[in-house]
Amino acid sequence: MISDGVVEDEEKWLSAGIAGLQQNAFYMHRALDSNNLKDALKYSAQMLSELRTSRLSPHKYYELYMRAFDELRKLEIFFKEEATRGCSIVELYELVQHAGNILPRLYLLCTAGSVYIKSKEAPAKDVLKDLVEMCRGIQHPLRGLFLRSYLSQVSRDKLPDIGSEYEGDADTVIDAVEFVLQNFTEMNKLWVRMQHQGPAREKDKRGKERGELRDLVGKNLHVLSQIEGVDLEMYKEIVLPRVLEQTVNCKDELAQYYLMDCIIQVFPDEYHLQTLETLLNACPQLQASVDVKTVLSRLMERLSNYAASGPEVLHEFFQVEAFAKLNSAISKVIEAQENMPIAGVVTLYASLLTFTLQVHPDRLDYVDQILGACVMKLSGREKLDDSKATKQIVALLSAPLEKYKDIDTALKLSNYPRIMECLNDGSHKEMANVIVQNIMKNKTCISTAEKVDALFELIKGLIRDLDGDSHDELDEDFIEEQNSVARLIQMLHSDDPDEMLKVIQTVRKHILTGGRKRLPYTVPPLIFSSLQLVRRLERQDESVSGDEAPTTPKKIFQLVTQTIEALASIPVPELALGLYLQCAEAANDCDLEPVAYEFFTQAYILYEEEITDSKTQVTSIHLIIGTLQRMHIFGVENRDALTHKATGYSAKLLKKPDQCRAVYACSHLFWLDDHDSIRDGERVLLCLKRALRIANAVQQMTNATRGSSGSALLFIEILNKYLYFYEKGVSQITVESIHDLSKLIKNEMHGGSSPSDPAADAFLASTLRYIQFQKDKGGAVGDKYMLITN
């Protein structure tokens, strides 16, 4: 780490260098203004002498260099003006070489050389060759790099490229390429040499400084890529071999990684494709510490994007057998770098898979081959806990899903589940969730039991605890996961009833292994899928609805019963009761009275033996009443037994108001509009009178405990039931009984001891408005309401 003292000293040295540079630049400007060439060269050389320092870090040296660069641009303009005034550019080129120190001399030479080339008094290639050779006189890495960077900067627009004004019989694009390659080679040598100068304890510092200078070297490759004359043939025969030779031979980790990345980023994708073998053969020759996986991954990413640019380029990939070459190169790299982390191995295969899915989407054998190679590397290891590796495996497994948008395709890959087995429990669950979300996003229909079995084996991390890892606490993530599984179960469908039954049986086999915390989420959707199948079979012909038929409602109901019974071990009696009632309603639609009665029996047993919470009892009894009201299949004996039980349960609720509401709800069990056989006005009236007695008891209890009458809300609710059945034509509900109840309500509400109840007042007002509405409406119902006086 650089101490504060060294930083302060460096600032002083930089300030001193800038001051000296500015002073000499001032005198140089005066000489330029007076057209004094001799003094201009003198002060510019003194100005450039400030760049001879060895005390500055690359960052600070760059700041000083840029100030000198700006002044040199002004000097170059002056040289051009001198040439127009008759000064011989050849003599000027010779004159600048009289500077006393080599570094200022070479900066001035490059500046004059730029003007020399532009004058076209000599072939560009000769001047460029002279300059690049002369720059070898500076072997100090930092000073040499910036000098050659300056040479590259002033010459880049004067290269003899195709179509350039500097192209001629003596100057060809080969000369331009040779110049840039030679400059690149020398700069890379200087850059690498920096790593080996200085004490070993400052190795990390030097590495950081070299990282700051890498763009100076990389700009040469960028210049090469911009030369119009560098076609595929020249790139293949000259440029790439020379660049790779320098890259491999430098044997420097930082340089090799950066230069390989530069090659991939700056040259065209089609060039990479046509020289793929050459480029890939260099990878195993790199130092073992080089991050080859990132280099190859970026190469495959670029090629994938190139393939995605249009179908017309795909034939190029087929011609060069890109997949085979990349696959072979990856194997060689992994073999050469025995200590490569497993995350790196998976990253390479994930990149290759992305490339393959883009170029060969129809070749599932290629995809499975990649997965198989990955399995080979992962086999024999314990389940991965490396977060980077597991993240890459999840990306690897997600790629086919994102490409094909169809889990069916993934299920055809034999190595897909084998890779999932390599994941730890957390990552397995994460990947399972990705699969489920993909299915729901793409609305994929999975219609066979075989596919369902394979799918649920893939997502077993969501279906059951792996390796005995059980947590009793239910967090939001767990609940969301189970809700996703529930939605997945609802999406499973087959038009063939026999196959759909097999699907249901397969799902049941898997979810029953889920344990007590999962069953409340996964059993209900399975039950509803089963009932949906039952309703599809409702209209099945009698000839195929017997016990010999492969799929019948009876068989499905037997399966459903066994599934609901699994909830008994949790227990969740309220959920089980609701499911039994749903099944009873489905059996009612299928005209299966014994089955429907059995479901109701099971619901009643749960109510009596398992449901003890008073609030749950209230909810359950209203659910029972509502379901029983919709049943039409029962004979008189069975219906009487069930309604008797329901009214008995209602009268035994803990709280009197709950009793009252449940009892008057039971009145609907004895009068159904669409069933003439279920119209018993006497029992309707009996229920309503019983509700009235309970409401009176509530008032008396309130008066005894609080010294005042309670709310008349219950009486108003019962009045609404009276009006309902009066409107339906129940003869036992008379106008007199409605009047009496109305009078009772008014007495209760306007009694001196009754507290004000806004809810009751609003409810009564709404009821009176309804009565008036029916009177105004007229007709048969209106005539009946005319008999009711407010």
From TrEMBL:
It holds the Pfam family Vps35. One of its GO terms (biological process) is protein transport. Coiled coil: none annotated. Keywords: Cytoplasm, Endosome, Golgi apparatus, Membrane, Protein transport, Transport. Its main location: cytoplasm. One of its GO terms (cellular component) is Golgi apparatus. It is a peripheral membrane protein. PANTHER family: VACUOLAR PROTEIN SORTING-ASSOCIATED PROTEIN 35, VACUOLAR SORTING PROTEIN 35. Plays a role in vesicular protein sorting. Belongs to the VPS35 family. This is Vacuolar protein sorting-associated protein 35. It comes from Salvia divinorum. The lineage of its organism: Eukaryota, Viridiplantae, Streptophyta, Embryophyta, Tracheophyta.
